Amino acid sequence: MPPLTLEDVAKVAGVSVSTASRVLSGTANVRPAKRDAVMRAAEQLGYRPNAIARGLASGRSMLIGVLTQDIASPFYGETLRGVEDGLEGSGYSGIFASGHWRVESEASAIHSLTGRSVDGLIVLGGHTPDARLREINTHLPVVAVGRQVKGLEDRCLRIDNVRGGYDCARHLLELGHRRIAYVAGPRDHRDARDRLEGHRRALREWGIEDDPALTLEGDFHEPAGLLAVEALLARGAVFSAVIVANDQMAYGVRLGLYRRGIRVPDDVSLVGFDDLAGSAFTTPPLTTVRQPTYEMGMAAAEALLAILNGASPALPLFEAQLLIRESTAPARSARPGLPARPELRPGERS
């Protein structure tokens, strides 16, 4: 049996070959009746467009390059899932490469993606200079997620991390906490700096002096949270709550407190940031800031498709949302490391 062709679909649908082509490639608007007829004919015949042939005909590769930072990261995993779903049905496929938060690695990843003749580029965070992204955008449309690119502001999706950090601290301050430890992300990471800035802004508004002994820097991975707890206890820091710059490190903090017999939230309240899928199922469920990562990934894909079809992208506004769960509670009197029970020593449990 000869292979099915576009002409077969057009004949069954009762439309021209060019109309069938436009419907199946999604390159132009077609009246609903004709579109439905073409889709029904394609489904009836079992026709599947040849992506390579379609790309040759349109002068496009039908590939979208996606520069992420860590494909294994649960945070970026949700964003990538949104990108994939946003591309679904468009005829485009995504190619993914990781930059690992290093300028050299990102440059290599971008070189690899553009070497595949991708039709557009989605950039998730990273340290690639704004000037380089503007240069790429002169010949290849770029949409950025989780960062602001000067000169490409209308193609960037990000939340207000300063406000997110502020809301975390405000929540604990309203519960009566005054000695709040903070586990920050890497200082060269814009999101980490913004969240810390929001935290410090809230402390200033409450008239609380920022104690450097209560702030530690991590790397956004779980072991950093575990080490932060040990460092705080080793220096005899007095705290009744801990804010962590992302959920992954918050998991490490939770483990570190558990190993020292410190109860959450009875002894120490704990707040994360990101609302990863597992954060609602920790013990206790984690108070955290939700980032709409899946929705942002989908919006980025849809915006890039609009640009490729000659339209102006309409980027929605996204907001961070504090989700209050059982890991935070009103403050009790603070003592070094173990605020509630002066009789309990490190290593002992109730």
Short characterization:
By secondary structure, this protein is α/β, with parallel strands linked by helices. It has helices spanning 6-13, 17-25, 32-45, 51-58, 74-87, 103-115, 130-137, 161-174, 190-205, 222-234, 247-259, 293-308, and strands at 63-68, 93-98, 120-124, 142-145, 156-157, 180-184, 215-217, 241-244, 269-271, 288-290, 321-323. Strand 3, helix 7 and strand 4 form a beta-alpha-beta unit.
Report on the architecture of this protein:
This protein is an alpha/beta fold. It has 3 domains: 6-49, Orthogonal Bundle (434 Repressor (Amino-terminal Domain)); 58-158 and 293-318, Rossmann fold (3-Layer(aba) Sandwich); 161-287, Rossmann fold (3-Layer(aba) Sandwich), CATH 3.40.50.2300. It has helices at residues 6-13, 17-25, 32-45, 51-58, 74-87, 103-115, 130-137, 161-174, 190-205, 222-234, 247-259, 293-308, and strands spanning 63-68, 93-98, 120-124, 142-145, 156-157, 180-184, 215-217, 241-244, 269-271, 288-290, 321-323. A 5-stranded parallel beta sheet has the order 2-1-3-4-5, with helices on both faces. Strands 7-6-8-9 form a 4-stranded parallel beta sheet, sandwiched between helices. Strands 10-11 form a two-stranded antiparallel ribbon. The protein is elongated and about 80 Å long. The model is unreliable at 338-350 (pLDDT under 50).
